[in-house]
């Protein structure tokens, strides 16, 4: 437990929710338990214009009531039109935000087969994409990903304006802190630490050199109202603690 008895998982929820602040009326596509709790919290508080789905074909309100129909063709229109902010996972991610969810090892003979490329390239080239990593380690935060699925800043720049025009990675959230790419070369920067985590701990868990300021702020605490929503309304069963333990 940390200050005010806020758990590490709840700091992660807040950090994920903040990814959708000021996004307006866009489709939030959270992939993972804590990102889903974060998106629902954001919709109920500071981002009421967010659109959420039931994971299939319906748009649902904060109370779960169906508000509309979202067939796949319309979903794709929102993707290519930039009216979507995804929070995906990453089996590997590098300093410029290239993400891998396809395979570990050489493509010709991989050591492990993962999900596959899926929609990661289209997502990253057409709409905002953030990332959620529940276990921050050097195996995930690597110098170079084994295969590029989600496109990073350097890869988008190398491909030219057609790839970089709508490319944006607002943040990466892990069980240790929050990271962004607010540096001159768009390399990863430590933006905030979850309370109880040190800069040295983050560096040890990262397989490349991070940009780190002299003073790194703590991830913001949830308000009393946000804690009530998380604990009593959105996730009363405490499933968030299965993904991130204190």
TrEMBL record:
GO terms for molecular function: CoA-transferase activity. Keywords: Transferase. InterPro entries: CoA_trans_fam_I, NagB/RpiA_transferase-like. The keyword Repressor does not apply. The keyword Transferase applies. Belongs to the 3-oxoacid CoA-transferase subunit B family. This is CoA-transferase.
